[in-house]
Amino acid sequence: MTRVLFSAPKTDWVDYREVLPQALAEAGVVAEIEHTLDPANPETVDYIVYAPSSALKDFTAFTGAKLVQSLWAGVEAVVGNATQTQPLARMVDPGLTEGMVEWCVGHVLRHHLGIDRDIGRTDGAWEPLPPPLARDRSVTILGLGALGGAVGQALAALNFPVTGWSRSPKTVAGLTCLSGEDGLARSLDRASIVVLLLPLTGATENLMNADRLARMARGGVLINPGRGPLIDDAALIAALDAGHLAHATLDVFRTEPLPPEHPFWAHPKVTVTPHIASATRPASAARVVAENIRRGEAGEPFLHLVDRAAGY
Ligand SMILES: NC(=O)c1ccc[n+]([C@@H]2O[C@H](COP(=O)([O-])OP(=O)(O)OC[C@H]3O[C@@H](n4cnc5c(N)ncnc54)[C@H](OP(=O)(O)O)[C@@H]3O)[C@@H](O)[C@H]2O)c1
Q1: What percent of the chain stands above pLDDT 70?
Q2: Is 262 labeled as catalytic in the residue annotation?
Q3: Would you list the domain boundaries of the chain?
Q4: What predicted TM-score, i.e. pTM, was given to this entire model?
Q5: CATH number of the 95-272 domain
Q6: Average per-residue pLDDT in the chain?
Q7: Half-sphere exposure of 106 (CA within 13 A, CB side)
Q8: Which atom of ligand 1 is nearest to the CA of 227?
Q9: CB under 6 Å to ligand 1: residues?
Q10: Longest distance between any two alpha carbons in the chain, whole Å
Q11: How far is the centre of ligand 1, averaged over its atoms, from the C-alpha of 302 (Å)?
Q12: Alpha helices, H only, the chain
């Protein structure tokens, strides 16, 4: 019998306790799932399904674990844990991707169409200013992974010219794909709307600094559903105050919850959302977890393994 430890807060367990056994059964895996902080004989646990918010921080005792399967797409907190030496897979969940596409398209369209201009208008002013077509508004996505690639394709399907940037050279249908330092400069040059869907690593922290923000088009908009530290906060506020950027929509922050005294809250050109861009959806994510466990049991390679050297 395959032994699976579900190591996540109780609230997550409530969401998974029915769908995970069902998905494992459908994948043909005969498994015993435990939700406990203190499993007996930890050395015989085969798989750890793990939320980085779990109280489990020391993986040393799990000497027989074949895989730690993260329930989150962002794994920076796990990669930095020196006791976590077992193979680590991040979450690539179709439901999570679908949610991220909807959130990003919604926020891009808000700025593209200038929707804020009309909301709450009661002054009787009649200023017919039709918005430009999407085909005339460039969008740049930094990060062309599971999420960035799908968001880029959805925007391209609406006719936005989309440029995407990744670490390794890539081809994504409908997008101009760039990589490397020169590719970053070219992706940002005069970009009207920039969406950050990069993981947080040593190489991406503070990526959006003053110089890179200055490359964006005057009146540009920055949308960050990636991770807070991708942006130099002070440089962003300076770019907004100077009128170089028109708006920033931020879902993620260096400290979460965003402290009440943080200047983002009161800034008229910043929209704060509380890390809700998208969440892992238990029904589809359980199938992803089950497939990786099935693979492990069949001796097949795991999907979505984290490259520790790269940090994601
Ligand atoms: N706000 C939310 O609700 C929410 C929800 C889920 C995820 N997220 C965030 O979204 C991030 C992206 O998720 P994902 O599933 O799309 O990740 P992913 O599939 O691992 O894709 C990451 C992308 O970033 C690129 N990249 C990484 N380091 C880079 C570097 N130094 N320079 C240039 N490109 C780099 C990768 O390049 P390669 O293609 O060359 O590898 C890849 O294209 C997560 O890490 C997480 O932080 C946020």
Answers
A1: 100
A2: no
A3: 2-93+280-298, 95-272
A4: 0.97
A5: 3.40.50.720
A6: 97
A7: 10
A8: 47
A9: 73-74, 92, 96, 143-148, 165-168, 170, 197-201, 203-204, 225-227, 251-252, 275, 277-278, 312
A10: 72
A11: 19
A12: 10-16, 19-26, 76-79, 94-113, 115-118, 146-157, 180-188, 210-215, 233-241, 263-266, 282-298
